[in-house]
Design goal:
By secondary structure, this protein is of the alpha/beta class. The chain is 38% helix and 14% strand.
Protein backbone atom coordinates (compact mmCIF):
# COMPACT_ATOMS: atom_id res chain seq x y z
CA UNK A 1 0.00 0.00 0.00
CA UNK A 2 1.34 3.44 -0.91
CA UNK A 3 1.66 5.86 1.98
CA UNK A 4 1.21 9.54 1.15
CA UNK A 5 3.79 11.72 2.91
CA UNK A 6 2.49 15.22 2.37
CA UNK A 7 2.86 18.64 3.94
CA UNK A 8 0.79 21.68 3.07
CA UNK A 9 1.13 24.72 5.30
CA UNK A 10 1.93 28.40 5.29
CA UNK A 11 5.26 30.02 6.13
CA UNK A 12 6.05 33.74 6.47
CA UNK A 13 8.48 33.57 3.54
CA UNK A 14 8.40 31.49 0.33
CA UNK A 15 7.59 28.73 -0.08
CA UNK A 16 4.05 29.71 0.83
CA UNK A 17 1.72 26.72 0.62
CA UNK A 18 3.35 23.65 -0.80
CA UNK A 19 3.07 19.90 -1.03
CA UNK A 20 5.85 17.30 -0.96
CA UNK A 21 5.01 13.62 -1.43
CA UNK A 22 7.26 10.58 -1.29
CA UNK A 23 5.90 7.07 -2.10
CA UNK A 24 6.79 3.98 -0.08
CA UNK A 25 8.94 2.66 -2.90
CA UNK A 26 10.62 5.79 -4.23
CA UNK A 27 12.36 5.37 -7.59
CA UNK A 28 14.91 8.09 -6.82
CA UNK A 29 13.47 10.81 -9.10
CA UNK A 30 11.48 13.94 -8.30
CA UNK A 31 8.78 15.69 -10.36
CA UNK A 32 8.07 19.38 -9.75
CA UNK A 33 4.66 20.69 -10.81
CA UNK A 34 4.32 24.37 -11.83
CA UNK A 35 0.64 25.31 -11.71
CA UNK A 36 -1.18 27.66 -14.09
CA UNK A 37 -2.29 31.20 -13.36
CA UNK A 38 -0.80 33.14 -10.48
CA UNK A 39 -1.85 30.78 -7.71
CA UNK A 40 -3.85 31.33 -4.56
CA UNK A 41 -7.40 30.10 -4.11
CA UNK A 42 -8.93 27.52 -6.44
CA UNK A 43 -12.58 28.30 -7.18
CA UNK A 44 -15.36 26.11 -8.49
CA UNK A 45 -17.93 27.29 -11.04
CA UNK A 46 -20.06 28.91 -8.34
CA UNK A 47 -17.10 30.85 -6.95
CA UNK A 48 -16.68 28.68 -3.87
CA UNK A 49 -13.12 28.03 -2.74
CA UNK A 50 -12.27 24.33 -2.82
CA UNK A 51 -8.48 24.42 -2.46
CA UNK A 52 -5.29 26.27 -3.22
CA UNK A 53 -2.89 25.98 -6.11
CA UNK A 54 -0.18 23.69 -4.74
CA UNK A 55 -2.48 20.76 -5.56
CA UNK A 56 -3.71 22.16 -8.91
CA UNK A 57 -1.80 19.63 -11.02
CA UNK A 58 -2.68 16.58 -8.95
CA UNK A 59 -5.31 15.35 -11.39
CA UNK A 60 -3.20 16.12 -14.46
CA UNK A 61 0.18 14.65 -13.47
CA UNK A 62 0.80 14.70 -9.70
CA UNK A 63 -1.04 11.56 -8.63
CA UNK A 64 -0.01 9.76 -11.82
CA UNK A 65 3.73 10.12 -11.24
CA UNK A 66 3.38 9.51 -7.48
CA UNK A 67 1.77 6.14 -8.08
CA UNK A 68 4.57 5.30 -10.52
CA UNK A 69 7.15 5.76 -7.77
CA UNK A 70 8.21 9.37 -8.24
CA UNK A 71 8.39 11.92 -5.46
CA UNK A 72 6.18 14.88 -6.32
CA UNK A 73 6.28 18.47 -5.13
CA UNK A 74 4.53 21.72 -6.00
CA UNK A 75 4.35 25.22 -4.51
CA UNK A 76 1.56 27.79 -4.61
CA UNK A 77 3.16 30.93 -6.08
CA UNK A 78 0.31 32.84 -4.42
CA UNK A 79 0.01 35.84 -6.72
CA UNK A 80 2.97 35.35 -9.06
CA UNK A 81 2.33 34.34 -12.66
CA UNK A 82 4.61 33.23 -15.48
CA UNK A 83 7.30 35.83 -14.88
CA UNK A 84 10.97 35.88 -13.96
CA UNK A 85 9.82 36.16 -10.36
CA UNK A 86 7.89 32.95 -10.92
CA UNK A 87 11.07 31.32 -12.23
CA UNK A 88 12.94 32.41 -9.09
CA UNK A 89 10.25 31.03 -6.78
CA UNK A 90 10.23 27.73 -8.67
CA UNK A 91 14.01 27.33 -8.62
CA UNK A 92 14.18 28.16 -4.91
CA UNK A 93 11.45 25.65 -4.23
CA UNK A 94 13.31 22.93 -6.14
CA UNK A 95 16.19 23.05 -3.68
CA UNK A 96 13.80 23.07 -0.74
CA UNK A 97 11.84 20.12 -2.19
CA UNK A 98 14.97 18.07 -2.86
CA UNK A 99 15.99 18.36 0.77
CA UNK A 100 12.48 17.51 1.97
CA UNK A 101 12.38 14.44 -0.29
CA UNK A 102 15.75 13.28 1.03
CA UNK A 103 14.59 13.63 4.63
CA UNK A 104 11.23 11.97 4.04
CA UNK A 105 12.66 9.12 2.00
CA UNK A 106 15.07 8.30 4.80
CA UNK A 107 12.13 8.00 7.21
CA UNK A 108 10.66 5.29 4.97
CA UNK A 109 13.94 3.42 4.98
CA UNK A 110 14.90 4.56 1.48
CA UNK A 111 18.34 5.85 0.57
CA UNK A 112 18.96 9.23 2.15
CA UNK A 113 20.43 10.78 -0.98
CA UNK A 114 19.00 13.68 -2.96
CA UNK A 115 16.94 12.84 -6.06
CA UNK A 116 19.06 11.48 -8.88
CA UNK A 117 16.93 13.24 -11.49
CA UNK A 118 14.37 16.02 -11.34
CA UNK A 119 11.69 16.71 -13.96
CA UNK A 120 9.62 19.87 -14.37
CA UNK A 121 5.99 19.84 -15.54
CA UNK A 122 4.22 23.18 -16.04
CA UNK A 123 0.76 24.18 -17.25
CA UNK A 124 -0.23 27.52 -18.83
CA UNK A 125 1.63 30.25 -16.86
CA UNK A 126 3.55 27.44 -15.16
CA UNK A 127 4.32 26.20 -18.67
CA UNK A 128 5.83 29.59 -19.41
CA UNK A 129 8.01 29.24 -16.32
CA UNK A 130 8.95 25.74 -17.43
CA UNK A 131 9.89 27.06 -20.87
CA UNK A 132 12.20 29.73 -19.41
CA UNK A 133 13.88 27.23 -17.12
CA UNK A 134 14.28 24.69 -19.95
CA UNK A 135 16.14 27.37 -21.92
CA UNK A 136 18.63 28.23 -19.15
CA UNK A 137 22.26 27.21 -19.60
CA UNK A 138 22.48 25.21 -16.36
CA UNK A 139 18.99 23.95 -15.74
CA UNK A 140 18.63 21.84 -12.58
CA UNK A 141 16.15 19.62 -14.43
CA UNK A 142 16.77 16.56 -16.56
CA UNK A 143 13.73 17.15 -18.76
CA UNK A 144 10.68 19.40 -19.13
CA UNK A 145 7.03 18.85 -20.02
CA UNK A 146 5.03 21.95 -21.00
CA UNK A 147 1.21 21.82 -21.08
CA UNK A 148 -0.63 24.62 -22.93
CA UNK A 149 2.38 26.74 -22.09
CA UNK A 150 2.64 30.50 -22.29
CA UNK A 151 5.65 32.38 -23.61
CA UNK A 152 6.10 30.59 -26.90
CA UNK A 153 6.70 33.58 -29.16
CA UNK A 154 6.06 37.17 -28.12
CA UNK A 155 5.84 38.53 -31.68
CA UNK A 156 3.13 36.03 -32.56
CA UNK A 157 1.29 36.73 -29.32
CA UNK A 158 1.30 40.51 -29.89
CA UNK A 159 0.15 40.05 -33.48
CA UNK A 160 -2.66 37.79 -32.33
CA UNK A 161 -3.75 40.22 -29.60
CA UNK A 162 -3.88 43.15 -32.03
CA UNK A 163 -5.92 41.20 -34.58
CA UNK A 164 -8.30 39.90 -31.93
CA UNK A 165 -8.87 43.38 -30.51
CA UNK A 166 -9.71 44.69 -34.00
CA UNK A 167 -11.81 41.76 -35.20
CA UNK A 168 -13.72 40.68 -32.10
CA UNK A 169 -16.13 43.66 -31.99
CA UNK A 170 -17.20 42.70 -35.53
CA UNK A 171 -18.28 39.18 -34.51
CA UNK A 172 -19.09 39.46 -30.79
CA UNK A 173 -22.30 37.38 -30.53
CA UNK A 174 -23.72 39.82 -27.98
CA UNK A 175 -23.86 42.42 -30.76
CA UNK A 176 -23.86 40.26 -33.89
CA UNK A 177 -26.02 37.23 -33.27
CA UNK A 178 -26.66 34.83 -36.11
CA UNK A 179 -23.44 35.11 -38.11
CA UNK A 180 -22.84 31.89 -40.01
CA UNK A 181 -19.68 29.83 -39.76
CA UNK A 182 -18.90 30.81 -43.35
CA UNK A 183 -19.19 34.55 -42.79
CA UNK A 184 -15.88 36.15 -43.93
CA UNK A 185 -15.53 37.94 -40.58
CA UNK A 186 -15.82 34.64 -38.71
CA UNK A 187 -13.30 32.98 -41.02
CA UNK A 188 -10.87 35.89 -40.64
CA UNK A 189 -11.09 35.69 -36.86
CA UNK A 190 -10.43 31.95 -36.89
CA UNK A 191 -7.33 32.52 -39.01
CA UNK A 192 -6.13 35.29 -36.67
CA UNK A 193 -6.29 33.15 -33.53
CA UNK A 194 -5.30 29.82 -35.05
CA UNK A 195 -8.29 27.69 -34.06
CA UNK A 196 -11.02 26.29 -36.34
CA UNK A 197 -14.44 27.87 -36.70
CA UNK A 198 -15.88 24.85 -34.86
CA UNK A 199 -14.30 26.27 -31.69
CA UNK A 200 -16.22 29.57 -31.84
CA UNK A 201 -18.33 28.87 -28.71
CA UNK A 202 -15.08 29.31 -26.78
CA UNK A 203 -13.93 32.50 -28.51
CA UNK A 204 -15.71 35.05 -26.26
CA UNK A 205 -13.33 34.43 -23.35
CA UNK A 206 -10.18 35.54 -25.17
CA UNK A 207 -11.99 37.85 -27.59
CA UNK A 208 -13.58 40.01 -24.92
CA UNK A 209 -10.31 40.04 -22.96
CA UNK A 210 -8.32 41.22 -26.00
CA UNK A 211 -10.54 44.26 -26.49
CA UNK A 212 -9.88 45.50 -22.95
CA UNK A 213 -6.23 44.40 -22.69
CA UNK A 214 -3.61 47.09 -22.26
CA UNK A 215 -0.60 46.97 -24.61
CA UNK A 216 2.68 45.92 -22.98
CA UNK A 217 5.04 48.64 -21.81
CA UNK A 218 8.82 48.62 -21.67
CA UNK A 219 11.02 45.83 -22.95
CA UNK A 220 9.21 42.59 -23.75
CA UNK A 221 11.38 39.48 -23.45
CA UNK A 222 10.96 36.74 -26.01
CA UNK A 223 11.79 33.07 -25.63
CA UNK A 224 15.10 31.97 -27.09
CA UNK A 225 13.54 28.82 -28.62
CA UNK A 226 16.74 27.00 -27.64
CA UNK A 227 15.95 24.45 -24.92
CA UNK A 228 19.01 23.04 -23.21
CA UNK A 229 17.24 19.90 -21.96
CA UNK A 230 14.79 17.46 -23.62
CA UNK A 231 11.44 19.27 -23.82
CA UNK A 232 7.98 18.03 -24.80
CA UNK A 233 4.87 20.19 -25.24
CA UNK A 234 1.21 19.20 -25.26
CA UNK A 235 -1.51 21.63 -26.38
CA UNK A 236 -5.07 21.50 -27.64
CA UNK A 237 -5.86 22.59 -31.20
CA UNK A 238 -8.77 24.72 -29.89
CA UNK A 239 -6.55 26.59 -27.42
CA UNK A 240 -7.02 30.18 -28.54
CA UNK A 241 -4.92 31.45 -25.61
CA UNK A 242 -1.59 30.04 -26.80
CA UNK A 243 -1.86 27.81 -29.88
CA UNK A 244 -0.41 30.24 -32.43
CA UNK A 245 2.62 31.15 -30.33
CA UNK A 246 3.33 27.50 -29.49
CA UNK A 247 3.28 26.60 -33.16
CA UNK A 248 5.58 29.55 -33.87
CA UNK A 249 7.93 28.31 -31.14
CA UNK A 250 8.09 24.89 -32.76
CA UNK A 251 9.07 26.54 -36.05
CA UNK A 252 11.85 28.54 -34.36
CA UNK A 253 13.15 25.92 -31.96
CA UNK A 254 16.75 24.72 -32.27
CA UNK A 255 17.92 22.06 -32.11
CA UNK A 256 14.74 20.49 -33.43
CA UNK A 257 15.64 17.08 -32.05
CA UNK A 258 15.50 18.41 -28.47
CA UNK A 259 11.84 19.37 -28.69
CA UNK A 260 8.51 17.70 -29.48
CA UNK A 261 5.03 19.22 -29.91
CA UNK A 262 1.92 17.07 -29.53
CA UNK A 263 -1.37 18.77 -30.46
CA UNK A 264 -4.62 17.15 -29.31
CA UNK A 265 -7.62 17.80 -31.54
CA UNK A 266 -10.58 19.68 -30.14
CA UNK A 267 -9.08 20.43 -26.72
CA UNK A 268 -9.23 23.96 -25.29
CA UNK A 269 -6.72 25.56 -22.91
CA UNK A 270 -7.73 23.14 -20.17
CA UNK A 271 -9.23 19.68 -20.46
CA UNK A 272 -12.88 19.43 -19.60
CA UNK A 273 -11.88 16.77 -17.03
CA UNK A 274 -9.33 19.03 -15.29
CA UNK A 275 -10.86 20.42 -12.10
CA UNK A 276 -9.05 23.69 -12.83
CA UNK A 277 -11.49 24.42 -15.65
CA UNK A 278 -14.03 25.43 -13.00
CA UNK A 279 -12.10 28.60 -12.26
CA UNK A 280 -12.28 29.60 -15.93
CA UNK A 281 -16.00 28.86 -15.93
CA UNK A 282 -16.55 31.07 -12.89
CA UNK A 283 -14.58 33.92 -14.47
CA UNK A 284 -16.39 33.62 -17.80
CA UNK A 285 -19.92 33.25 -16.48
CA UNK A 286 -19.91 35.36 -13.33
CA UNK A 287 -17.13 37.91 -13.60
CA UNK A 288 -17.12 38.51 -17.37
CA UNK A 289 -20.89 37.95 -17.82
CA UNK A 290 -20.27 35.93 -20.99
CA UNK A 291 -23.14 33.55 -20.43
CA UNK A 292 -23.72 29.92 -19.62
CA UNK A 293 -22.93 28.59 -23.10
CA UNK A 294 -19.32 29.78 -23.01
CA UNK A 295 -18.74 28.24 -19.58
CA UNK A 296 -20.44 25.01 -20.67
CA UNK A 297 -18.18 24.80 -23.73
CA UNK A 298 -15.11 25.01 -21.49
CA UNK A 299 -16.25 22.01 -19.50
CA UNK A 300 -17.15 20.02 -22.61
CA UNK A 301 -13.61 20.07 -23.99
CA UNK A 302 -12.10 16.63 -24.64
CA UNK A 303 -9.14 15.54 -22.55
CA UNK A 304 -5.45 15.97 -23.17
CA UNK A 305 -4.54 14.35 -19.85
CA UNK A 306 -3.85 10.87 -21.36
CA UNK A 307 -1.47 12.50 -23.86
CA UNK A 308 0.20 14.50 -21.08
CA UNK A 309 0.87 11.33 -19.12
CA UNK A 310 2.04 9.44 -22.18
CA UNK A 311 4.33 12.34 -23.06
CA UNK A 312 5.81 12.26 -19.55
CA UNK A 313 6.64 8.58 -19.91
CA UNK A 314 8.29 9.29 -23.26
CA UNK A 315 10.25 12.15 -21.69
CA UNK A 316 11.62 9.85 -19.01
CA UNK A 317 12.73 7.24 -21.56
CA UNK A 318 14.28 10.03 -23.63
CA UNK A 319 16.30 11.28 -20.66
CA UNK A 320 17.19 8.02 -19.00
CA UNK A 321 17.58 5.63 -21.92
CA UNK A 322 18.25 7.92 -24.85
CA UNK A 323 15.13 6.66 -26.65
CA UNK A 324 13.77 9.48 -28.78
CA UNK A 325 10.00 10.06 -28.47
CA UNK A 326 7.64 10.01 -31.46
CA UNK A 327 7.88 12.91 -33.89
CA UNK A 328 5.77 16.02 -33.34
CA UNK A 329 2.19 15.26 -34.37
CA UNK A 330 -1.49 16.01 -34.04
CA UNK A 331 -3.73 13.30 -32.60
CA UNK A 332 -7.33 12.75 -31.56
CA UNK A 333 -8.11 12.86 -27.86
CA UNK A 334 -7.60 9.41 -26.34
CA UNK A 335 -5.40 8.11 -29.15
CA UNK A 336 -1.82 7.07 -28.47
CA UNK A 337 1.23 8.75 -29.95
CA UNK A 338 2.91 6.95 -32.85
Amino acid sequence: MITLAAITHAQPQPPQRYVVRVPDHWNGSLVIGAHGGSGGDALDRSGRKYGTSETALDDVIGQYVFHKGYAYASVDRNGVGGSREGVTITLQFVEFAKNEVRLRASRFGERASSPTRTYLVGLSAGGGITRMIAETARSPFAGALIIAGAGGDVITRMDRQQKMAALWPLIDPRAHAGLSDKDPKIVSYAEAIGTPVEARRLWPYTGASAVTAKPPTGTVENSTARPTIPTIEVVGTWDDLVIREIRAYRERVEPKDRHRLYQVEGVWHMSGDDDGVQGFQYTAETRMKLGKDVADAMGESPSYIPTVREAFDYLVRWVEKGTAPPASQTIKSGNTLR
